Amino acid sequence: MSQRISVTGHTSVDYLLTVETMAGPNASAPALDCQEYFGGGAANVAAAIACLGGDVELISPVGKDFAQKEYDKELQEFGVDLSKLYFIPDRSLSKAFIITDAHSNQTTYFYWGAAAKLAEMEPPRVSFVHMVTADCFFNAKMSQAADFVSFDPGQDLITYQKEPLNTILENTDILFANRHEIELVMKIAEKTFEELKNMIDLIVVTRDKEGSTLYENEIADGKCVKTIETDIKAVLVESVDPTGAGDAYKAGFLTAFVKGYSPKICCQIGSVVSSFVVEKVGCQTNLPDWNRMSERYAVHFDIFDLND
Amino acid sequence: MSQRISVTGHTSVDYLLTVETMAGPNASAPALDCQEYFGGGAANVAAAIACLGGDVELISPVGKDFAQKEYDKELQEFGVDLSKLYFIPDRSLSKAFIITDAHSNQTTYFYWGAAAKLAEMEPPRVSFVHMVTADCFFNAKMSQAADFVSFDPGQDLITYQKEPLNTILENTDILFANRHEIELVMKIAEKTFEELKNMIDLIVVTRDKEGSTLYENEIADGKCVKTIETDIKAVLVESVDPTGAGDAYKAGFLTAFVKGYSPKICCQIGSVVSSFVVEKVGCQTNLPDWNRMSERYAVHFDIFDLND
After folding, report:
1. Are residues A276 and A299 in contact, defined by beta-carbon separation less than 8 angstroms?
2. Which of A195, B7, B125, B252 is a good FRET partner for B275, with 20 to 30 A between their CA atoms?
3. Residue A130 dihedral angles phi and psi, to the nearest 5°
C-alpha cells in the first residue's frame, strides 16, 4: 500500500439550477432543471484518489444529513476512510447553490453549514495532508500537524487573513493554484512569486484548457539551486460541466506523487483524471480507476507504462 | 366524519437561503443560513386540514425523493390520505429556492420537477376539491371531475391561459385570491369583477395584515339576488415568516366550511389558523389542532363555541 493521503476541507452537496434568465430581487423565475450532486472539494479529491486506488482518508466536518442522503455510503463504496470525520449533529452539510443561465452566467451561494465549525476543530497528527480550501485557521493548525503538506487555497481564499496564510505557506510542500488564486495568495500573504518559489519546492499553476505549469525547485546540499519551469498540456475532451475538474487534477497528481512518479508525470496524470470529470455533470460521477486513466494517458502523452 | 376534502397541486421542498447581499451574475455570496422545509401549496393545505381534524386526501405528483426525505411519513402522521398521489419515478419533487437578503428582498427559483407531469394526468372523480395553483390544464379537467370546486390560482397564475382558466372559473364554487391575483384572474379570463361575482357564489380576497373580504351571493329561487360584502380582520401576531400563511387560511376556511360553519366564520377561522403558521419558519411547522385554533379564535372574535 502506498503512503496514505489525508484530505481536509469541505464535504458538501451541490444544487445545480438551470434557468433561462436570472431573477432579480423581489422577482421569481422558473428553474428548467435542478440536480443535486455530492460535492465539496475535499470529498471530491478523496473520492477520486480512492477510485485511482490510493489509500485515502477524509478529515472533514459533516452534518446530520450526511448519512440521511447516503453520502457516507457512496464515499465508503469508493474506498474512502471516514473514521476521522467530524460529525456536527446540530448542523447540516455545507451546500453550494449554483444557478446557471442560458448565457452560461453563474451565480453561486455557498452555505458553510457544518464546515463553519472547522475553525474550532483540533486537527489530528497526520503524515501527508492535502488541504482543500476551507477555513484558514484550521488549515494553519493542520499544516503544523502534518509531516508533508499539499495546499489548494481555492474559492475560500477570499476569506483568508495574512498571518494564518503565511503559517500555511511556511509549512507547504506543494502549492496548487489557478492564475487568479496565485495572485490573491501573493496579495494576502504579501509575498512575491519569487518569495513563494523560495519557500515552496513544488508549485503548480493551473490554467483550465491552456494546461498547467510546474515550478520545481532543484535542491543541492539542502538548498534550492534553481527552479525548473515545465508546461503541461491539458487533455482536451468534450466538456459538459467543468465543476470538479480542479479537484480531479489534484487527486491524479497526488495519487501518482505518493506512488513515486516525477512531478511532471504527476501533472500529466492530473490532466488526464481531470478530463474524465468534465465529461459528465457532477464532481464524482465519472471518476476513472488507474487502468482507465493509464489508457487515456498513453493516448495523450509519450507512451509510458504507468505501473499500478 | 365530515365531508372529505381532496387537495390538488404542488408537494415540494422549500430551500430558504438567507444572505447579506444577493450575488449578481458571475459572482458568489455566502449564505448565512440555509434551511430545508417541507412545503408546496397542496401539501401545506392538506397537512393543515388534517391537523385541524378534517378528512383530507392529497392528489399531487411526487418524485423519487419524496420517500427518501421521509416527507410521506410526515404527511401520514398528520393524517393525510396519500393513496391518490401520482408517483413519478424519473423525477424529483418540485423545489422552491427562496433567497432573502438583509433588506428582506426575495428572489425565488421554482423547479416543477414531478409537477411538470401534471398536465398529462387524468384526475380522479371526487366530491369536494380544493385546487392550489399548479397546472391550468390539469385544474381545468379536475374542476370538471369534481362536484364542488374551491380554487386558489396562486403563484402559477402567470402561466395560465384564457380558455382553461375560464373552464375552471365556470366550475368554481369558492375562489380565493389576493389583491394582485384577483386582478390577474380578471385580466387573463377577460372578465370584470362583476362577472366573476355572478359566476362564483363565494369569493374571498385576502390582503395580508389588512385582513380579507368575503363576497357572498344571496341566492333566491336558484338565482343570485345580491352579493353581501363582509370584511374580516386579520389575527395579528409576531410574524417570523409569512410563507404558508395563505395556505393555512384556506385550510382553516375549508375545514370549517365542510363542518357547516357560515362563510364569515370560515374566514375568521382561516385568519386564526394563518396566525399560527407565521409564528414559526416553515409552512408545516406550527399547525394548530381544532382546540388550539378555537382557543385563539375566542380571544380575537366574538365568543363563539366552535364545536368539534
Report:
1. no
2. B7
3. -115, 115
Chain B environment of A154 (Cβ under 8 Å):
none
How far B128 CA sits from the closest chain A CA (Å)?
A: 30
Q: Which residues pair with B266 in a beta bridge?
A: none
If you ran DSSP here, which 8-state letter would residue A297 be given?
H
- Low-confidence winner among A182-186, A219-223, B77-81, B138-142 (lowest mean pLDDT): A219-223
Task: Provide the CB-side half-sphere exposure for A228 (13 A, CA).
Answer: 9
Give the pLDDT band of residue B282 (cuts 50, 70, 90). Answer: confident
pLDDT at B115 over 90: yes
Read off the amino acid at residue B6: S
| Residues of A with Cβ-Cβ distance to B30 under 8 angstroms | 109-112
Q: Which three cell numbers stand for residue B258?
A: 365542510
CB-nearest to A111 from B31, B95, B155 is: B31
Spell out which chain B residues touch chain A, with contact meaning CB-CB distance below 8 angstroms.
15, 17, 19, 22-31, 33-34, 36, 92, 95, 97, 99, 101, 105-113, 155
Continuous segment of H or E residues that includes residue B175: strand B174-178
- B247 tagged catalytic: yes
Q: Say what the pLDDT of residue A1 is.
A: 54
- Residue A225 is placed in which grid cell? 539551486
- On the 0-12 / 13-18 / 19+ scale of CB atoms within 10 A, B211 is middle
Give the residue among A132, A109, A97, A136 at the shortest CA–CA distance from A248: A132
- Highest mean pLDDT of the ranges A29-33, A184-188, B96-100: A184-188
**Cell 401545506 sits on residue:** B44
Distance CA A281, CA A43 (A): 16
Cα distance between residue A159 and residue A138, in whole Å? 13
Q: Which residue in the set B23, B108, B112 is minimally distant from A23, CB to CB? A: B108
pTM of the model: 0.79
Sorted by sequence, the CB contacts under 8 Å of residue A5 that are 6+ apart come out as A49, A54, A55, A56, A57, A128, A129, A130, A254, A255, A258
CATH 3.40.1190.20 fits B12-38+95-112+127-297, yes or no: yes
Say which residues have a Cβ less than 8 Å from residue B77's Cβ, sequence separation at least 6. Answer: none
DSSP conformational letter for A85: P
C-alpha grid cell for residue A172? 507547504
User: Chain A residues contacting B, CB < 8 Å?
Assistant: 15, 17, 19, 22-31, 33-34, 36, 92, 95, 97, 99, 101, 105-113, 155
